[in-house]
Amino acid sequence: MFYYLFDFLDKQLNFPGAGVFQYISFRAAMALIVSLLISMVFGKRIISLLHRKQVGETVRDLGLQGQMEKKGTPTMGGLIILSAIVLPTLLFAKLHNVYIILMLVSTVWLGAIGFLDDYIKVFKKDKQGLHGKFKILGQIGIGLIVGITLYFNDGVVIKEKVFAGRQVAFGVEDSNTMVASGQAVYSNEQTKSMKTTIPFVKNNEFDYSSLLSFMGDGYAKWAWLIFIPFVILIVTAVSNGANITDGIDGLATGTSAIIGVVLGILAYVSGNTVFADYLNIMYIPNSGELVIFIAAFVGACVGFLWYNSFPAQVFMGDTGSLALGGIIAVFAIAIRKELLIPILCGVFLVENLSVVLQVAYFKRMKKKFGIEYAREHRLFKMAPLHHHYQKTGMHESKIVSRFWIIGIMLAVLTIVTLKLR
Q1: The whole model's pTM is what?
Q2: Terminus of the chain with fewer CB atoms < 10 Å: N or C?
């Protein structure tokens, strides 16, 4: 909203300093600051409200150190995160941008699913919360919306890099190209393409439609058969990965903040012709606006850590964790970096895999040797993985710190893949 106000003041009234709102970097910085203030200042009031409403966490005795001490801690703190993301975005972003609209819809949609789950647990006293199949249906629903929008919306395009220097044919510059001295050169024509970035490959672009080349001429128009289901898979997997990771104080929040910083960098370079040219990655027009959204996301996560770090004064609940994972997935898909998710979101991936492996191994041992043997010879002492380390006697604050360090290493590796080919 402020963007439109100051754009009017700048262009119509020539108001001094109003032009600064044209800069993405300035608006991103303001979104970050406002997001921090909302989560830290108003977060305390929301926590007090949750206390008064007796919105406390129900804790099962799993034999984990300090677990029962968390009983009664306010949950549904994801409302703080959602507010600190949505409000700064509405204030500082261009609201007609298709990517911003998509991110806001995804945030509210997944936050609503998580809120419903937490509401059932807290107020209906049903420990199971929202039935798993309804969660999955909700995730599939937003995956469909995201996939259809990114595939069919005319505003979602890329610009192909044509050449590195000035092209002259018979003494006349090609009218279909943009020539700028000392800058990247891209076609003036925006291309509707299903290309995405693939790591560790020299020409690091992959086109989903190429998987259907066996269909003969016109195969490209059927690329949505591959793209949309893949989007649904990514959104569901990352959303659930963040949900599973949210098991000890500050783990999911801090990990998400680290991931958010990297996504912000990737969005900025993808939406800037100079950096896109230097890194030899695709230029995505208007994607730079996503930097404002992700700045608010990082600010919300860091601000929430003020209350969520050990010992936590509030838990985000599914209201926050489902939204965080979904935001990360949709954002990565929007800037065409979804194939970097296994690296960037390695902590979420390992947490997910630990649960899958634990269940599969238990079933195998049960079938082969019986239930008692399977219980005594589990693959992990407990799943997900962070609980395994708790069972070994490691304090949760140390576990969180080490997972953050791993997350930072994976974040650096993700950025390095842009040049490591």
Answers
A1: 0.91
A2: N
